[in-house]
Amino acid sequence: MKKRKLIFLVPYLAWIALFVIMPIILITVYAFRDEHGFTLSNFSQFFTNGTFLRMTLNSFWYAFLITALTLLISYPTAYILSRMKNQQFWLLLIILPTWINLLLKAYAFIGIFGKGGLVNSFLGLFGIGPANILFTNAAFIFVAAYIELPFMILPIYNAICDVDPAVMQAASDLGANKWQAFKRVLWPLSKSGVQAGIEAVFIPSLSLFMLTRLIGGNRVITLGTAIEEYFMTTMNWSMGSTIGVVLIFLMIIVMISTSSSASRRKKREVKL
Amino acid sequence: MSNIIKLEHVKKQYDDGFVALKDINITIESGKFYSLLGPSGSGKTTILRIIAGFSEPTEGRVLFDGQDITHLDASKRQLNTVFQNYALFPHMNVYDNVAFGLQLKKKEKNEIKKAVKDALHMVQLDGFANREIAELSGGQQQRVAIARALVNEPKVLLLDESLSALDKRLRKDMQFELREIQKKLGITFIFVTHDQEEALAMSDEIFVLNEGKIQQSGSPVDIYDEPVNDFVARFIGDSNILNGRMVKDFEVEFGNHTFECADAGIKPGERVEVVLRPEDLDITSVDKGKLHVRVESQLFLGDHFEIKAIDTDENEWLIHSTNSTKVGKEVGLYFDPEDIHVMRFGESEAEFDKRLESYEGGD
Description:
The complex is a heterodimer. By secondary structure, chain A is mainly alpha-helical. Helix content of chain A is 75%, strand content 1%.
């Protein structure tokens, strides 16, 4: 009886083993090897060479900027959305772009931001430009934020919808103005959604590589770009794997730190 | 006593065209316990939301202490609300919930502590300050909600169906406690409920609402004994309502008999409705009774028997009696002239009061 049930687990376990566990083992093995066998030189190179550390900081910095910009746009959007009438329709409009292939969207932006693109033709009407928009850091952050937006809006929207409207009225009833009601009631109660959104945006942003090339014009070098470079161009799989392993650890750290701050609520004891 | 809240010609129409309130005029005196009583959809909660500031009337004015507050933000009104499902802040403990209003007012820390302690004591939750909301029972959450509102020393406390989520026993206890708190603090309570027993037990004054209109207002005794129309008579307590005809002052005809009654000021021959409360009907022998009925069914309800009987004209009578009888038995029904209450069709509350004054000398 019990054995028969386990049969259903086989496809799942096979999938995990082949496409999750195996690759992790493989890149770990590659990271600790060079032509001569076992070595720690890849890691010592990573942590002593300024270029790698700068790339790591760069990755974090851009992931942070992308996440911050996405959050800044998403929270008000999610809030307004939760107070709208045809919520399902607006929600669909937000989800819709995720159905379009990422590469396609990237090429669309090349068209929009390019020398003869939409933005420059528009600026041309006022006699400005043509400006160099494509291949700038700002363009890279903008497009990355655009692509990540739905993944930030949805969890925040769900969290805000879960807040009982009566609780907001209670805050107002007790004398809270709009800002106080937001700061003391809505924000703490929707924080779980913000945390989920940050995880969904920050972690993938750490390893973006296609956008850095297509939109950022290779000016922004992140860990993601470096990995691609080592695997595809210089064929130094060991160094590429090392960066991959470091990236996995960084992601785990980010995940632990965001999720623990969500569950941890400072308990204050008051003596009366 | 001075008036604290006044609603003048308040109307409320929602965007979809639904008219929730039609010309509501209410005067609330300070220090009294009021109930807004009505079935769901009657507009009672809408009135409360307009007073609290969560909803604006389409027409009319709301006055608070003589000041027009129709468009004033809820956060600036000197009143507090106990919500239907309490609406406590789930991310705060009991202390922070109760202290919320005072912290916003930037009160001194020790002052807040003392006020919270007193408020928790008043609702019998001493020692609960550091509990989480999720750890509390429904009754305890209810008390926290009351403490959170009262700690701000509002002039008026609004309660929105606040007891309806509690079980019967707890509800009875809370009714008693709320009344005690109201008397002790001497502030005005406005209580919204659909439970007529609750309204009768707690209120100084009741507004009975139906379909966005106030049907009748008055003390519980007035409303119970002298309902102005059949809606009020049916909604408040059980009643026997029969069609009848006024013979002359202090004499009414129903069920093919003429009875002495206590009502006057109605044209002879006018069609009326007659209300007889089931507990005012006494079962007696056929020859002593004013009406001759046959017992159809009998239910034992613990504190009384609910008896259904049919008279010789096929009218059904509901009788509450402490003594049992036998199903199928022929009995007589006896009632006093004062037990008969005559209602005119379409008579408004104002007209009713005026007529009452005309023959009772205004007492």
